[in-house]
TrEMBL record:
Membrane topology listed for this record: Multi-pass membrane protein
Keyword Transmembrane found: yes
Superkingdom per UniProt: Bacteria
Region Disordered, annotated ranges: 1-24
Compartments, record wording: Cell membrane
Keyword Transmembrane: yes
Protein name per Swiss-Prot or TrEMBL: Transmembrane protein
Protein family according to the UniProt entry: Belongs to the glycosyltransferase 87 family.
Length: 505
């Protein structure tokens, strides 16, 4: 009968795992849903209309990106060109228009091959980012005043970065099959919108998000290729191979790890080798610049040097950063191999990138973009995510107000040194807080929001549900559905959402 579902459809619906409803398990999401008419229903949950969760998340992300572009309007109109301090007091600074002329794109110079005038002899960005910048310059009209060209260059980059934003939102939403709505953490992240067009970091973030999606689908080679391309755009994505090595060691998935590693190295070499051989000095500029760069904004080294009036050289900062990073890596290795249940890939990926940020000698405000998609996968809990985001927004405002203070002369408009140091500490504490919560989830898997819903490691690909073959210390728990906890259930009364049952965060 045409009105009755087929037996195959009925069986598919029975065996298909039900997507997780954030308004059911998260009090903040439940309360926030009141602004749009209440908690999500089954029609939206199962995507029976055009408005599927992934499409909604992508559109919200694009909308927030557009709001971030509007926030840059005072600078777009004049502050980038006529006011050194006004681009800071309006918190709308961007590297993009300044580097159009400063890195030779206005003069048609070829990155890595043509030498730049002044102290910056070559472009100080990785190769794939340099290609991205060059493509945007091709889309920029060469006529008109330099101001109009810089505006057009920023707009061309913004359009390309918006595509990256949509890719990040879609990939994050699809990585955890049963949790597509977690992508809203990325789409609605205020720090994401504020920093998206400061620099070109979103290219690497998008490639890493796509790589994480490929690994969750068991496609190790595609993961490796995308990770290698991400590393060719920014160094930090390569760090994810460390946690992956440990997890594959614990699960005995050496073949998959080798495939991913070969794909990553091969993709990185394909991008870098031509420039490395044809323009070795220009290619090496990024690595020389990263090594020789002194202590800079946002780092714990800057706070120490300012508070105690000590001089920390670039070599000393490099050494201490390396020592701290190695200590963190050793700690993560011990955590991975001794945890009562194998950690999820997203958890360790977030922790290793966060450690790199915390121990680095510089923290540019757009570096928060590196963590946002990983945080949404590692700890999809609105309360913790928003606490961290509040600290990052405070730092975003703090650095611009501090620069306004230092560039406004005797007027001293902005934030003095002590206020900026407080903003740096807030950023450090906010990131450490989220790291601590993720570590707690690893040590106490019953507190993990993802595993309480019945999953093991939805971003883990071949690691999802795989038995352990190497564990240090006590025996691991059975991996799949070993501990199934019902999250806090949210009921709706006359006064709005009320949580019942487990109230743990």
């Amino acid at each position: 009968m045409c009105g009755m579902p087929s037996a195959e459809t009925t069986r598919a619906s029975v065996h298909q795992p039900e997507p997780v409803r954030p308004t059911r398990e998260d009090e903040v999401a439940a309360a926030g849903s009141e602004l749009i008419g209440g908690p999500i229903g089954r029609r939206a949950l199962f995507g029976t209309s055009w408005w599927t969760p992934v499409r909604i998340v992508a559109l919200v992300a694009i909308g927030m990106f557009a709001l971030g572009m509007v926030q840059k309007l005072p600078c777009y109109d004049s502050a980038w060109f006529f006011g050194a301090s006004s681009q800071y007091t309006h918190a709308c600074y961007s590297d993009i228009p300044h580097l159009y002329q400063g890195r030779g794109f206005a003069d048609g110079l070829v990155p890595y091959f043509d030498k730049l005038p002044g102290d910056m002899d070559y472009l100080e960005y990785p190769v794939l980012t340099g290609v991205f910048m060059e493509v945007a310059s091709w889309l920029t009209p060469g006529s008109g005043t330099i101001q109009h060209q810089e505006q057009a260059y920023w707009m061309a980059n913004a359009g390309m970065l918006m595509v990256c934003t949509a890719i990040i939102a879609v990939c994050t939403s699809r990585t955890h099959r049963r949790r597509p709505w977690d992508g809203l953490l990325v789409a609605l992240a205020p720090a994401f919108a504020l920093t998206a067009t400061i620099n070109w970091d979103l290219l690497a973030v998008a490639l890493l998000a796509a790589a994480m999606l490929m690994w969750s689908r068991g496609r190790a080679l595609a993961f490796g290729i995308l990770l290698g391309l991400a590393t060719a755009a920014k160094f930090y994505p390569f760090l994810v191979l460390g946690p992956l090595f440990l997890l594959c060691w614990r699960a005995g998935k050496w073949r998959e790890f080798a495939t991913a590693l070969l794909g990553a190295v091969g993709a990185w070499l394909v991008v870098n080798l031509p420039v490395m051989f044809l323009a070795p000095e220009g290619w090496a500029k990024f690595y020389r610049f990263s090594h020789d760069r002194g202590v800079d904004f946002g780092s714990v080294f800057l706070v120490l040097s300012q508070r105690w009036n000590i001089q920390i050289t670039a070599d000393a900062a490099n050494t201490w950063a390396m020592v701290m990073m190695l200590a963190v890596c050793a700690g993560l290795a011990a955590l991975t191999l001794t945890a009562p249940r194998r950690p999820r890939l997203a958890q360790l990926a977030f922790l290793i990138v966060a450690a790199f940020i915390l121990t680095n000698k510089v923290y540019s405000p757009q570096y928060v973009l590196w963590l946002v998609p990983l945080a949404a996968l590692a700890r999809p809990r609105w309360r913790d995510f928003l606490i961290w985001q509040a600290c990052e927004v405070a730092y975003f405002l703090g650095i611009w107000m501090y620069l306004a203070y230092t560039t406004s002369g005797d007027a001293h408009k902005g934030l003095p040194t002590e206020g900026y140091q407080l903003a740096v500490v807030l950023h450090l504490l906010g990131t450490l807080y989220l790291c601590a919560v993720v570590v707690r989830d690893i040590l106490m898997p019953e507190r993990d929001v993802v595993r309480r819903a019945g999953d093991d490691d939805p971003s883990g690909g071949v690691l999802d549900g795989a038995p352990d073959v190497f564990v240090l210390g006590a025996a691991a728990h059975p991996p799949r559905h070993a501990v199934h906890f019902e999250g806090p259930q949210v009921e709706w009364g006359s006064r709005g959402p009320m949580s019942v049952g487990d109230s743990s965060p």
